[in-house]
Design a protein that fits this description.
heterodimer; A: mainly alpha; two-stranded antiparallel ribbon; 14 helices; globular; B: 257 residues; alpha/beta; Rossmann fold; disordered N terminus
Chain lengths: 359, 257
């Protein structure tokens, strides 16, 4: 039963993916010279890195939605918070090379601020940023989840309040006074850990790190869902009352998985921002979080691998469509969602395997 | 009140469950009206009554799903159930079977019993939990008891209705409860399955206390020692089956129609 989760084919694909990410990508991007037909351009490396960080978010959502049955439509917020925590550090790394050649980021000079607001304390340290990447989304998810789960908010009501949460955060981050650069957010990063951020070497390192985190996430998630804890989560999804009358407190279980999921999203956001070079409040828009749920639904809920597949397929389609017919992308996304819901209720992975995927 | 009856403190013959003057209203409708009931340790008690008599609400109160507006519920003479959550009540030793079989359908028979098994059910221990040989043995013993030993790897959702009922009973037994609350345990069972269920319940009485709510009078007669009749949220009769059957009020509200 539990061995079936990835299966021999799944492990093979995971291994092949690791070879592509850790061997082929570096070779074709760094060793093969530019201009050679086999050269892999930085554009593709960044695009792939971006999609892999989305895949981490998708796996994180699959843990709470696919297994515990909690449909969060606010996971974009945790992703963005991790991104902002990393973004603050990257802003500090710009140093005096901004437009105004000040210690302060340009947007603060523009607002005529004379010093850093309190929440930028320590933001010049990488370790502090790394800590915030984990703690801020984790703490928010814990506190929010505590009240929501304790009050037994479920199903569509939970989904709606998570939408409201991310929307409220977006409005907060849009304000210039919040101190996160308003609607422009953070951009124009120059360095990370003192290294220039746009060189092929740094890009490749970030990409490989993202791939490593995705693999680690898949292994961790597999361990979680194949443990007894994972079976309790499935049980909560299907018969919460019985779980309670068996003596488990569902609140603790939901809180644990929801918080862990938010932390994973924060880490994904922190990997995403240095690669795409920008973070702004639009990442917190309610539609973004809904899109994450669509990735998981398209790939196949409750399979982990499906989440990665869904994030890859939808984002590849998005990259393609937004270049060719930018104004039709949202219609197309809606169409994919309807088709998948009607004809592939277990997602692409479920339709492909035709059987198994019972979890 | 307990102190006034010191003779009953001994666990062997004591009262395992004591409901005292319970009232519950839903939007003005009195589901339970000053209900008092005592279940002895090891007793097999049947509770009957027409629809809406408050049988399920009574179980909800005992298991913490519904809080009483008035009155008190004591378990094992000292545990005040009105203060505990559903999970804590389950831990204290009360197992409940629902009217509609409530099992974990996508999990296997074995896994269903594993999850129900008495254990430390906090998140941290559950993450690392490993099944030992002794625990496997207990699960297998329960599977034999509920006659599902031949299909441990069967997905529970694919069992027949009667088998699901049995699995749920097996899950209750895995919790090693002192008190089992069984809401219509033979609904949807064949005659033969009902008979076997009756045997099972009779064999459990003594080690466990059982409260059985049923509509199937034949089943009740096959197991009943002491019967409580509920009507409009209160007890209207209590005693051996023969006596209750001939009670004019019981005939009027329930049996005689």
């Amino acid at each position: 039963m539990t061995e079936r989760l990835y299966g021999a084919r799944g492990w093979t694909i995971l291994g092949a993916g690791a070879v592509v990410a850790f061997v082929l990508f570096p070779v074709f991007n760094l060793a093969v010279p530019a201009g050679h037909p086999l050269h892999l351009s930085n554009f593709w490396v960044t695009l792939a890195g971006k999609i892999l960080s989305y895949a981490i978010v998708a796996v994180a959502l699959d843990l709470v939605w696919g297994y515990a049955g909690i449909l969060s439509l606010g996971h974009g917020l945790f992703f963005a918070l991790g991104g902002y925590a990393m973004g603050m550090y990257l802003m500090r790394q710009i140093g005096r090379e901004g437009q105004y050649q000040s210690e302060l980021p340009d947007f603060m000079v523009f607002l005529d601020w004379k010093e850093f607001p309190w929440h930028w304390w320590m933001s010049e340290h990488f370790w502090w940023a790394a800590l915030l990447v984990v703690l801020v989304p984790g703490l928010l998810a814990f506190v929010f989840g505590f009240f929501a789960f304790r009050s037994r908010v479920k199903g569509v009501y939970f989904s709606i309040i998570t939408q409201a949460l991310t929307f409220a955060a977006m409005l907060l981050f849009f304000r210039n006074n919040t101190g996160f650069g308003g609607n422009n957010g953070f951009t124009d990063f120059k360095r990370i850990l003192g290294l220039p951020i746009t060189t092929p070497g740094t890009r490749m390192a970030l990409f490989a790190l993202t791939a490593a985190v995705l693999i680690a996430t898949l292994l961790l998630a597999r361990w979680v869902v194949t443990s007894k804890f994972g079976r309790v989560l499935t049980a909560i999804r299907d018969a919460e009352q019985r779980v309670m009358f068996c003596g488990y407190d569902p609140v603790h279980y939901k809180l644990a998985v929801f918080t862990a999921s938010a932390v994973l999203c924060g880490i994904a956001g922190a990997l995403y921002v240095p690669q795409v070079g920008i973070i702004n409040p639009s990442e917190m828009s309610p539609a973004n979080s809904i899109e994450i749920a669509i990735w998981v639904a398209v790939g196949g809920r409750g399979t982990l691998a499906g989440a990665v597949l869904g994030a890859g397929l939808v984002n590849a389609a998005k990259s393609y469509f937004t270049v060719l017919f930018p104004e039709y992308w949202l219609y197309f996304l809606g169409l994919i969602f309807i088709i998948v819901t009607l004809f592939m209720p277990r997602g692409v992975l479920g339709a492909m395997s035709g059987r198994v995927a019972r979890r | 009140m307990m102190a006034a009856r010191p003779a009953e403190v001994s666990l062997a013959h004591g009262v395992v469950l004591y409901l005292n003057g319970i009232s519950v209203s839903f939007d003005g409708f009195k589901a339970l009206n000053n209900l008092s009931l005592a279940i002895d340790a090891g007793e097999l008690r049947c509770v009957i009554g027409p629809n809406g008599a408050g049988k399920t609400t009574m179980m909800d109160v005992i298991t913490g799903k519904t809080r009483p507006d008035e009155g008190s519920v004591f378990f094992n003479q000292t545990v005040d159930l009105a203060r505990l959550s559903e999970a804590q009540i389950a831990h204290a030793g009360i197992g409940r079977k629902f009217q509609k079989p409530t099992i974990f359908e996508p999990l296997t028979v074995f896994e269903n019993l594993e999850l129900a098994m008495k254990a430390d059910k906090r998140v941290r221990t559950t993450l690392r939990a490993k099944l030992g040989a002794e625990e496997r043995g207990r699960i297998e013993a329960t599977m034999r008891l509920v006659r599902l030993e031949r299909e441990p790897a069967r997905i529970a959702g694919l069992l027949s209705h009667g088998e699901k009922q049995w699995l749920e009973i097996g899950m209750l037994l895995m919790q090693e409860p002192k008190l089992l609350l069984l809401d219509e345990p033979v609904a949807g069972m064949s005659d033969e399955e009902s008979e076997r269920t009756a045997e099972l319940f009779l064999s459990l009485a003594g080690q466990h206390s059982l409260v059985v709510v049923e509509h199937d009078m034949a089943f009740i007669e096959s197991i009943a020692r002491k019967v409580t009749v509920l009507h409009e949220g209160s007890v209207i009769a209590e005693g051996p089956m023969n006596q209750v059957k001939n009670d004019p009020r019981v005939i009027e509200v329930y049996l005689g129609r």
